[in-house]
Design a protein that fits this description.
single chain; elongated; 21 helices
Length: 456
C-alpha cells in the first residue's frame, strides 16, 4: 500500500515537469527584448546619417560624385557585387594591393552572377544556423552592412574598389574567424597546439607580406609605379606619375604618361589639363590651348582649366578672352588666389589700373603674404602719385622677403619723392647689398646723393 501511495505521489510531479518541458521558451526576437537594443543605437544612427549627408554634399561640391550618365546604375550594382567578393579575397590573400583600383565600368555578366550566387547562398546558410552559431550572423551582417555606404552605389571618386574602405567592414569577417575556428576545433585533441602553430604561421606570412608591401611606399613615384604594375587601364595613376615627372623637370616623360592616360580615357578632363600645362611650359601654346578647350568641353565647371586657358590667351595677347576665363574660374571658386592675381595682371597689361587694384586686393584678402602682389600694387600706386599707400605696400613686400631688390629700389624712389632722403638712401644701399651690379639702383642712389647732378 505504501509503495502504491508513493507511486501516486510522484505522478503529479512528473506531469508538471513534462508540461514545463513542453512550454515554449521566450524567443530572443521578441519586441520587448529588441526595442532597448534599438534605442541604445539610435544616437549612433543619427550621427552616422548626419555624417553621411555632410560627406556627400562636400564630395558633390568638389565634383567627386559621378553621374548616372558616366557610370550607369547597372554598372554600379555589378561592380558592388563583385567588390564584396573581391574584398574577401584580398583579406584571405592580400596580393597585388594598389592605392587605386580603377572602376571597371561594365563588369562581365558571369562575374556578377557568380558573386550574386555566392553572397545569396552564404547569407542563406548563415541565417539558417544563426541560433546555433550567432557570431556568424553578426560578423556576416556587419561585413555586408558597413560596406553599403562605400560599395559604389553612390559613386564617389574614380575607384572601383579601395582597400581603405574595408578597415571597419573586415572586423565582421574577423569575428567570424576568431569565434569560428576554435568552434571547429573544439573536439580536436590538440586544439591549443594547432591554434598556436596556425596563428604563428599566419603572422609570419603577414609579416613577410607587410615587409614586401612597405617597400612600395618609399615614395609617391614607387607607389604609383607599383599600382600600374598590378592594375590595368589605370589612367589616374598615369596622370599622377606625369605630375611627379613634370615637377622633376622630365617633361617628355610626363607627356608620355599623360598621353597614355588620355589614350585609356579620352574624356579625362584632369589629364587634358595636366598635359596642357606641360605643353604650355614648353611654349607650345596652341597645343596647350586645345587640351584646355577639351578639358572644358568635358567639364565646363573646371576652374583650373579656365585659369590655365586664361594664361595661354594672355601670353598670346588676347587679354579680353583671358579676363573672361579668369572671371569664370573665380565665379566657380571665389577663393582662387591665382585667378585673382592673373586677372589683375591682365587688367594692368591693358592699363586698367583700378580694375587691377581691385583684383589684387581680393587676392590679398585670400593670402596677405603675396609678395609680388604687394610689389605690383605699390608700383601702380607709385605711378599714380599715391606715395604713402605705395610705401606701405613696398614695406610689406620687404617684411615678407627682406632681400627683395626691386621692392627696396621702388621703396627708395617713393621715399625720395616724399622728401625722406636719408631713408631712401638706406633702401638703395640695402638693394645694392643684395645685388651690387644693379644699374637702375646705382643710378637712383647717385641721384639721391647728388640731387643737383643730372644723370643720364
Amino acid at each position: 500500500a505504501s509503495l502504491k501511495q508513493k507511486r501516486k505521489s510522484k505522478k503529479p510531479h512528473i506531469v508538471r515537469e513534462k508540461a514545463e518541458a513542453k512550454k515554449p521558451t521566450a524567443s530572443p526576437y521578441q519586441w520587448s527584448l529588441i526595442r532597448p537594443l534599438l534605442w541604445e543605437k539610435l544616437p549612433f544612427l543619427v550621427l552616422s546619417t548626419a555624417s553621411s549627408v555632410i560627406t556627400y554634399m562636400a564630395q558633390q561640391k568638389a565634383g567627386a560624385v559621378s553621374s548616372l550618365q558616366s557610370i550607369p546604375l547597372s554598372a554600379r550594382i555589378g561592380n558592388a557585387l563583385v567588390s564584396y567578393c573581391g574584398y574577401m579575397g584580398k583579406m584571405v590573400w592580400p596580393e597585388k594591393l594598389a592605392i587605386l583600383y580603377p572602376h571597371p565600368g561594365i563588369v562581365p555578366p558571369w562575374q556578377i552572377l557568380g558573386a550574386a550566387l555566392f553572397l545569396a547562398i552564404s547569407t542563406f546558410l548563415i541565417l539558417r544556423v544563426s541560433r546555433r552559431v550567432p557570431y556568424l550572423t553578426v560578423g556576416w551582417l556587419w561585413y555586408l552592412g558597413t560596406l553599403v555606404p562605400v560599395i559604389g552605389i553612390v559613386q564617389v571618386g574614380l575607384q572601383g574598389m579601395a582597400d581603405r574602405y574595408t578597415y571597419v567592414p573586415l572586423i565582421g569577417l574577423f569575428i567570424m574567424s576568431v569565434w569560428g575556428v576554435p568552434d571547429l576545433l573544439k573536439k580536436w585533441r590538440y586544439k591549443k597546439v594547432t591554434l598556436a602553430v596556425l596563428s604563428l604561421l599566419i603572422l609570419a606570412v603577414l609579416a613577410i607580406g607587410t615587409w614586401r608591401q612597405v617597400r612600395y611606399w618609399q615614395s609617391s613615384f614607387t607607389l604609383f609605379e607599383r599600382t600600374l604594375e598590378v592594375t590595368s587601364n589605370n589612367y589616374v595613376m598615369h596622370s599622377e606619375l606625369g605630375n611627379i615627372l613634370k615637377a622633376q623637370g622630365k617633361l617628355e616623360e610626363a607627356i608620355s604618361h599623360y598621353t597614355k592616360a588620355l589614350r585609356i580615357n579620352p574624356n579625362y578632363a584632369y589629364g587634358h589639363n595636366n598635359l596642357g600645362t606641360v605643353l604650355q611650359e614648353q611654349g607650345r601654346f596652341t597645343e596647350a590651348a586645345s587640351h584646355y578647350a577639351e578639358a572644358l568641353r568635358i567639364n565646363k565647371n573646371y576652374a583650373d582649366a579656365h585659369n590655365n586657358m586664361g594664361i595661354v590667351l594672355q601670353e598670346q595677347g588676347s587679354f579680353q578672352e583671358a579676363a573672361r576665363h579668369y572671371g569664370e574660374a573665380i565665379r566657380l571658386r571665389p577663393d582662387y588666389e591665382k585667378a585673382h592675381i592673373n586677372l589683375g595682371e591682365t587688367f594692368a597689361a591693358q592699363g586698367k589700373y583700378d580694375e587691377a587694384m581691385d583684383s589684387y586686393s581680393k587676392a590679398l584678402r585670400i593670402n596677405p603674404d603675396l609678395i609680388k602682389i604687394h610689389y605690383n600694387m605699390g608700383t601702380i600706386l607709385l605711378s599714380q602719385g599715391k606715395l604713402e599707400e605705395s610705401i606701405a605696400h613696398f614695406r610689406e613686400a620687404i617684411r615678407i622677403k627682406p632681400d627683395y631688390v626691386k621692392a627696396h629700389s621702388n621703396l627708395g624712389s617713393a621715399l625720395l619723392l616724399s622728401g625722406r632722403k636719408e631713408e631712401a638712401i638706406a633702401h638703395f644701399r640695402e638693394a645694392l647689398r643684395y645685388e651690387p651690379d644693379h644699374k637702375i639702383v646705382q643710378e637712383n642712389l647717385k641721384r639721391a646723393l647728388n640731387p643737383q647732378k643730372k644723370t643720364e
